[in-house]
Design brief:
171 residues, mainly alpha, 3-stranded parallel sheet, 3 strands
C-alpha cells in the first residue's frame, strides 16, 4: 500500500450499496462514512494522485461502482457548494446591519440612557461577531471539506480480487 492509497475490503459488490436500494445507485452509509473519514483524516495535498483500491472476494462491475462512488461524493460536493454560495453574502449583510444598529446606538446613547439603547449595542456587536464567525470559521471549514470531496472524486479507483491481494502480500 502506497502512502496515497486507500483500501476498502468487501466480500461482494452488494456490500457497497444501501440495503434498501434495489437499483444499487446509493452507497451504504457505512461505506460513505469510512471513505469520508479516511480522506478527511489524512491531511494530504490536493495535487497528489490518490488510489482507492477495492478488494473483493468476488468480481465486481467496476464501471457501475466507479459511477456510484463518484456520483455520491459529487452530490455531497454540490450540497457544500450550495452552502458556500449561501454564506457568501451573509457576512457582508450582517456587518452592514451591525454597523447600522451600532450607528443608531451611538446616536441614541448620546441623548438617552435606557436599557433599550444598551440592547441595541449588544445586537450590533452580535451581528458583527456572527459575520466574523461565518467568514473566518464556517466558510474555510466548508471549503476544506469540499476540497477533500474533490480529492475523493478524482481518486483513481481500482479493483482487485482478494486472492490476488493475498498473493501480493505473500511476495
Amino acid at each position: 500500500m502506497t502512502a496515497n492509497e486507500i483500501k476498502l475490503k468487501i466480500q461482494e459488490e452488494e456490500d457497497l450499496y444501501a440495503p434498501i436500494d434495489p437499483d444499487r445507485t446509493m452507497l451504504s452509509e457505512e461505506v460513505v462514512d469510512y471513505l469520508s473519514r479516511v480522506f478527511l483524516s489524512k491531511h494530504r495535498r490536493l495535487r497528489e494522485e490518490y488510489v482507492l483500491r477495492i478488494i473483493s472476494d468476488t468480481p465486481v462491475n467496476g464501471e457501475h461502482v466507479k459511477e456510484t462512488i463518484r456520483g455520491e461524493f459529487n452530490r455531497q460536493k454540490d450540497d457544500i457548494h450550495y452552502a458556500l454560495k449561501r454564506l457568501r453574502l451573509k457576512p457582508i449583510l450582517l456587518t452592514i446591519l451591525g454597523a447600522a444598529i451600532l450607528s443608531v446606538w451611538l446616536f441614541l446613547s448620546a441623548t438617552a440612557e435606557t436599557v433599550g439603547v444598551e440592547i441595541l449595542s449588544i445586537m450590533g456587536w452580535v451581528c458583527i461577531w456572527k459575520a466574523f464567525s461565518i467568514a473566518v470559521l464556517q466558510r474555510p471549514d466548508l471549503r476544506r471539506e469540499w476540497l477533500n470531496l474533490e480529492r475523493l472524486v478524482r481518486a483513481d479507483i481500482v479493483f482487485q480480487l482478494a486472492e490476488d491481494a493475498g498473493q501480493d502480500a505473500a511476495e
